[in-house]
Automatic annotation (TrEMBL):
The lineage of its organism: Bacteria, Pseudomonadati, Acidobacteriota, Terriglobia, Terriglobales. It comes from Paracidobacterium acidisoli. Its cofactor is pyridoxal 5'-phosphate. PROSITE patterns: AA_TRANSFER_CLASS_3. This is 4-aminobutyrate--2-oxoglutarate transaminase. Belongs to the class-III pyridoxal-phosphate-dependent aminotransferase family. One of its GO terms (molecular function) is identical protein binding. Residues 444-469 are annotated as: Disordered.
Amino acid sequence: MSSISLVTTIPGPRSQALTKRRSQAVPRSVAQINPIFVKRAHGALIEDVDGNVLLDFAGGIGCVNGGHADPAVIEAIQKQSSLFLHTCFMAAPYESYVRLAERLNVLTPGSFPKRTFFVNSGAEAVENAVKIAREYTSRPAIICFDDAFHGRTYMAMSLTSKMKPYKTGFGPFAEDVYRIPYPNPYRDGASISPEYCVERTLDTLNELFVNRVSPEMVAAIIIEPVLGEGGFVVPPPAFLPELRRICDAHGIVLVADEIQTGFGRTGRMFACEHFGLEPDILLTAKSIASGMPIAGITGRAEIMDHSMPGALGGTFGGNPLACAAALATLDLFEREHLCERSVRIGEIFSARARQWQARFSCVGDVRGLGSMQAIELVRNRSLKEPATELTREITRYACEHGVILVTAGTHGNVIRLLAPLVISEGELNEGLDVIEAALHAFSPRETDPSDQQMTEAAYGAGKEKHRPD
């Protein structure tokens, strides 16, 4: 039985009317990726205001790993709302904030003592991580990575790599920010060896230390264990442990931005676990509370306790409704074994996507960990020229046929999977059928048998050999 149910064309008349109202009320600079307006959502399904039911492969851009409107999460929010909505934790604290901090201190990688505090968004978590690292080390410089995304507030935007649309016209940016390449096996080293792109990045880092900023001036290195907005790029297994060693050698705080990778998206609770990485500070947000606005900064106790009382906090950080939702969401992960389900989702997607790669010349790369999966579309496999317009066409087609997608990548040529982890296998395959139909409709050509053999040789066994696990 089909989960997708389209009773009008997409967008329907009510969504079209709301889009017109939106244009008169909301700045055009606030993007609208898909042309529908939502009425209700449950699990992995969204119903729009016209009565169309679509599969959600975007998941609120990674915020609903536990699914839309889980009954236990809704019940926890309703129960808390009947007690009190806000006191400000700094003025009149409450137990749920402490309990959530305790759970994150245990769940996050590292057996050392930790502390956690809460803010409202991922960008705000990034801002605070920079503050903490600078105050703890008494150093000014921050190192980040090409193709990274860390948010839209001032410091977070300075750390974000992509200029358009995130940074153009918003400068000048924060000082003492230095950028090095993120190791990208597909674009930087697959034809040589998986280790090549690691060596390239580390060589660039060493050159940076010599020519631009001494390591004794670096407060922190901030990294996404798997690139999110930058294209779902998985680094080679050796990279993050080596980065940990370098940070230890120079007294640099290592910050893991797990805002998109966390809470089961990669098949582990946190992506760092795939690489044996224990960061000094780990940042969470998005799926921590099934869509409620909260973000966490969890770090080594000696780092987090270093600042004076009152140096950290915020009026709404750790709002009681959001804390209740987060605690219920963590219970949901345990009850429904969502990390294991994430692994299965990734297996199904990867198997289908490998078939697409063998069949469609535009599918240049298939990659990911757990359900954090993606395909990179190219105009030419040899040159790997990004197929940005083709990616837009496939996303549009998918929405018109009942699947909500979001893209990624610096050039907007990556289709990423962010479906809720509660999605059924039937729903998942139904959505993948729509993507396959879009590839068939818009791909310049299908590959011939020799292309298929080449693809299997280049992207099959070699990829499996170098998985982080």
